[in-house]
Design a protein that fits this description.
The protein is mainly α. The protein contains 20 helices and 4 strands. The chain has one domain. The strands form 2 sheets. A two-stranded antiparallel ribbon has the order 1-4. A two-stranded antiparallel sheet has the order 2-3.
Length: 469
């Protein structure tokens, strides 16, 4: 009699199991809440010391795990539609031959300098996250980097490591991220962007650690493809990448045509508009979706694609990312159940209480891990700041550390854990686009997270010892 091998469930199964677990927790953990007050920006901020149990809160429905799924899709509709538009855009772009021709040009240029490609790309992603707060904006780069890494002899995990590790190591020390750093400093009563010099040092340290991790893995795969963590996993139908990519196929492509160069110019202009719109015009996801929809039409006009051909390619591309949309919607359903059960504030309060008993430097490390746990329940950086910083800022005064250190602990906890927690839609969406199971990602990223936890803790201890303000 042969024993059956254990198989890790599909990511969708894991996420739905977590929705069910969230519902069970609502029956065990008492509902509670903080009082909130409206601040100048119109956002609601927690009142420190106001937590109280709410015994009259209604219990969640026995069917909450099921009704949370459509509610999760509704709550995440902006990012889901964004993913569909990205899929359609890249299908139209690929139909013009521009993507493959561009990959071939990059391959010919970087084949002998892959380290510079990986390190440079990661630094750019990290800088975008650290300054402007980019995250979902990196979706369009998934098929590009996967194609390029495959052509260089690496794998899909290398490509996603470039994006997500770059994103996380930049978001953690966040130099001037308006969605985390500036909001947290405002709540803590600090000058905007103060303490920048120490965050800059941390930025280069953590990005360096991330580059070393991804490059070490890439070299192993390049030397022995069997070492790939996704070597035994075929590219699923729902992934937004080609299944017939090979170095020879790209290498044999002719140089870019004038039409393809014009299309690439349009893409570059669109990227410049995206950055300007985000930073100056304060664009949100709807404006970004409109930009990429317009770019799709411009590409079709330049390539002289017929309306029917454009619509067909766009539909195929958008449809190929249905599985990604499912993952994002179900991941958001976890938070829906926790919110309906009224236990998010209870959990945040519960994990913050032990920190009060810790001495200064150790308390700063405790804040780091508390914020990491809180990010699972509140995956929005700004949302987490509004809930936790009114608690952590006064707590910092009590345990004898500066509020600047409390803000840094918040940044570390929120930013670094973004590349680990399954409730983070940027992570789940990008893994889905590349066809990488969540369990394989954990195997890849956990050694890095351990290193980050150690170095992050040391950075907080140093910040306390030098009186970082």
């Amino acid at each position: 009699m042969t024993k059956r091998k254990f198989r890790v469930p599909h990511t969708l199964v894991i996420l739905f199991s977590m929705v069910v677990l969230a519902q069970l927790l609502t029956y065990v953990i008492p509902a509670g809440s903080f009082e909130r007050t409206e601040i100048e920006s119109g956002r609601m901020q927690v009142v420190p010391g106001s937590f109280h149990i709410t015994p009259d809160a209604p219990a969640v429905s026995p069917f909450a795990a099921l009704t949370a799924i459509p509610k999760g899709f509704s709550s995440a509709h902006e990012i889901i539609f964004f993913v569909f538009i990205i899929g359609g855009l890249f299908a139209v772009l690929r139909a013009t031959g521009t993507l493959d021709a561009g990959m071939a040009a990059l391959l010919r240029r970087w084949r002998k300098r892959p380290f510079l490609l990986i390190a440079g790309s990661m630094t750019l992603f990290a800088f975008g996250s650290s300054t402007v707060g980019f995250g979902e904006e990196y979706y369009p780069f998934v098929p590009v980097l996967v194609s390029l890494c495959l052509a260089l002899g690496y794998d899909r995990m290398t490509a996603i490591g470039i994006i997500m590790v770059g994103y996380g190591t930049g978001y953690g020390p966040a130099i001037i991220n308006p969605f985390t750093t500036l909001i947290a400093q405002d709540i803590a009563g600090l000058e905007p962007a103060s303490g920048l010099w120490y965050r800059l040092i941390c930025f280069f340290i953590f990005v360096g650690i991330g580059i070393h991790h991804v490059w070490s893995y890439a070299k192993r795969v390049g030397n022995d493809p069997s070492k790939s963590l996704v070597a035994d996993i075929d590219v699923p139908a729902g992934a937004a990448i080609p299944r017939d990519q090979s170095p020879a196929a790209l290498d044999d492509l002719p140089p870019m045509t004038k039409v393809q160069k014009l299309i690439m110019t349009a893409i570059v202009v669109a990227m410049v508009m995206l950055i300007y719109g985000m930073t100056v015009w304060k664009w949100g996801l709807f404006e970004m979706q409109g930009l990429f929809a317009g770019l799709t039409l411009i590409i079709a006009v330049i390539a002289r694609m017929s309306p029917d051909e454009t619509a067909t390619e766009f539909s195929i591309g958008a449809g190929s990312l249905t599985s990604v949309a499912l993952l994002i919607g179900v991941a958001r359903a976890i938070q829906v159940v926790l919110d309906e059960g009224g236990i998010v504030d209870t959990m945040v309060y519960g994990i913050s209480v032990p920190v009060q008993e810790l001495p200064g430097a150790i308390a700063a490390i405790g804040m780091f891990f508390v914020q990491s746990l809180a990010n699972f329940f509140i995956p929005s950086g700004s949302g987490q700041a509004y809930v936790t910083m009114p608690i952590m800022a006064p707590l910092a005064d009590l345990v004898g550390v500066s509020r600047q250190v409390a803000v840094l602990a918040f940044q570390f906890g929120d930013g670094f854990s973004n590349i680990l927690i399954p409730t983070q839609y940027v992570l789940i969406g990008i893994l889905g686009m590349a066809g990488i199971p969540y369990d394989r990602w954990l195997i890849f990223v956990m050694p890095l997270m351990i290193k980050i936890a150690i170095v992050g803790s040391l950075a907080l201890v140093v910040a306390v010892l030098i009186g970082y303000e």
